Inverse folding.
């Protein structure tokens, strides 16, 4: 947590995704849409050790295409580690020497948690579009149920980037007495018309794929072409224009190709996007893409002053809002919008914008300033709310 | 030209698209790719009257989805007038009381000029992807041939927005002695990796549509779903985030719909985009979309300092570069990039950025400052290069 210089080599090591079944048909999970779900499976991973009084829990919330595997590797020969491995582990901001970190696949997901590709107990077949509409609030509710199952009533902090930041914010609103800190990164209190527009085109690309068949495709070909187009387009919004220029510019994939090669003559950025699209469809479900983007579109906890005041009245955690200067999916002004709302209602909120070339994806990537701020916020929470090992932490802080 | 207050009501009235066949199999049109085309049909419209010495010609260049119909109406009950009607007509910047304005459908188009949907004389069937790869240079070359056919050797100005601006710039480079002025609006000297990425995803959406069939779809269903997705995505880039927020915000299409209505509960911006997509496919050819976007991707007249110097050395027209502050498809920095190159090579170039809410589409919309600048540039050209009626014009200028 405090040793920045060498922290990047520290990993949580080999980890396993666990799975638990919560709720059942007799006692199902209530959803915001009025329907209910049960049983509900949840995939999750944990890193670090729960302390005796259960005061060192950090809950991580993943973004649209994430999953429970936030850190470490499942097998020694995995090429990639978990999606937030840069920030989770001994000596990293989510310091597993001090914290017990929990990461679960979101409700509606396709990586171990119940979603549209799961079996509908009523039909014995995959839900498809019979899956109920879900909200960011439902996602937080399922995480709360998972923690209850694990015997955890309160968390030290909830943190997430992008849609994960929305879920973290939802925690502060829905369970105000159950968290001390809330970290909202590269996120927004609501999608703009442009954000919704991009999501709408992505959904359209999926739904016009002839293999989509109204979402009932699990027993035949999946709508991978439409999903790949959706992902390619979304991927453009995850990267800054600057990052694309530095990484690809106008470089050709095959420098010997000529204009006469026609549509086979690709710019490197085209090949890259096609690769992103085709690899995404091997691990993601098109219906999940529809449900999750719709949940993002509909997230709007502060639609009017009255609701805002009512929702924020009980909120008493410390909030940290972070943004990146080249993020154009959820740019800094969206974070400032959230900070303004929180400040107007006298909440304890910090805000920092970081410089990065990497656009929206910056929240996943290494950056000393961002790392330092995350660490500092977490160290202060630890010092103030976790009592036992605070001495070692304090020493670390004074060294910084 | 000089009467700003009442100019908006002045129309060129009823117009007709004309069509001419240029080149033939024995004397085909050479293309940059090394292949050739002949015969080549060109659709065009003219507004105003050619003066005696042929010195009052203005050539307009349309953007990706434009056509020859730039002004007026084809039928009295047409709901819409031509795409640049705001700026063409008596008393408007492209003042048909003074100028003879020519607008033609671009090579590769689908509205009367030879393109991939035209009949390939070798096969007797539509070209499809057998159509040769074309460039912005080829588009300018066909316009030059059209003018030659009309007996016009020199033009007073070439003007265009977006891709039309690229064609206008190409004119200044390829026919430096044949134009006095060049107006490049909301355009760029080259596409960035992000621009190319958006075009690549649009092409992918078209090509994965099962009706695409390698471009050979003219005798069956067209790949309208893919083309609609491509258009929906591109349309987002034509509008500023601000314009989308003002026009749609988070308004629902059906305010009575609830979250439980699922994917049928649309935000207004979704319905709007779907409408844009579905109306576009009734008038545009998917193969043309592929060819034209590829030509844009490959446009790069200044790839290195040596080529730049060589290309610009003979350029001696006056150039006017214009941009709009909320345009994020080709933002102001792209125009400045062009201006910098031109200035470094001692070209006569003016530059102006206009304030607008409307993003890239602003070049088509009414705006007093933009209109004034267009007018002023054209008035000066008229005064300096068109001799007969200059007295009336000069009076107009002094009134401004």
């Amino acid at each position: 947590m405090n040793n920045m210089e060498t922290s990047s080599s520290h990993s949580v090591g080999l980890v396993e995704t666990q799975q638990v079944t919560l709720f059942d048909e007799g006692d199902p999970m209530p959803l915001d849409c009025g329907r209910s779900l049960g049983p509900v499976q949840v995939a999750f991973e944990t890193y670090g050790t729960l302390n005796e009084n259960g005061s060192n829990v950090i809950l991580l919330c993943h973004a649209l295409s994430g999953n429970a595997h936030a850190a470490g590797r499942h097998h020694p020969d995995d090429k990639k580690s978990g999606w937030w491995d840069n920030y989770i582990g001994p000596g990293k901001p989510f310091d597993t020497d001090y914290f017990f970190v929990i990461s679960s696949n979101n409700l509606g997901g396709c990586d171990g948690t119940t979603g549209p590709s799961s079996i509908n107990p009523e039909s014995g077949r995959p839900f498809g579009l019979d899956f109920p509409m879900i909200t960011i609030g439902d996602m937080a509710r399922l995480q709360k149920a998972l923690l209850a199952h694990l015997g955890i009533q309160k968390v030290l902090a909830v943190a997430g980037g992008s849609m994960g930041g929305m879920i973290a914010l939802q925690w502060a609103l829905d369970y105000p007495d159950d968290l001390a800190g809330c970290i909202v990164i590269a996120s927004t209190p609501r999608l703009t018309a442009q954000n919704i527009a991009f999501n709408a085109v992505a959904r359209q690309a999926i739904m016009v794929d002839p293999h989509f068949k109204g979402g009932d495709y699990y027993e035949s070909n999946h709508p991978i072409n439409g999903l790949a187009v959706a992902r390619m387009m979304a991927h453009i919004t995850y990267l800054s224009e600057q990052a694309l220029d530095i990484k690809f510019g106008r470089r050709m994939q095959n420098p010997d190709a000529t204009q006469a090669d026609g549509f086979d003559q690709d710019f490197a950025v085209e090949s890259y996007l096609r690769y992103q699209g085709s690899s995404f469809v091997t691990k993601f479900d098109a219906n999940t893409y529809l449900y999750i983007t719709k949940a993002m579109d509909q997230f709007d906890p502060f639609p009017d002053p009255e609701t805002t005041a009512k929702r924020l009245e009980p909120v008493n955690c410390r909030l940290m809002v972070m943004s990146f200067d080249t993020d154009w999916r959820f740019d800094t002004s969206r974070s400032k919008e959230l900070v303004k709302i929180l400040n107007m209602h006298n909440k304890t909120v910090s805000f920092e914008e970081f410089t990065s070339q990497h656009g929206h994806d910056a929240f996943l990537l290494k950056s000393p300033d961002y790392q330092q701020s995350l660490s500092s916020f977490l160290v202060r929470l630890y010092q103030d709310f976790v009592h036992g090992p605070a001495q070692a932490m304090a020493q670390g802080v004074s060294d910084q």
Remarks:
- Residues 7-190+302-399 of chain B form a domain with the Rossmann fold fold (CATH 3.40.50.1820).
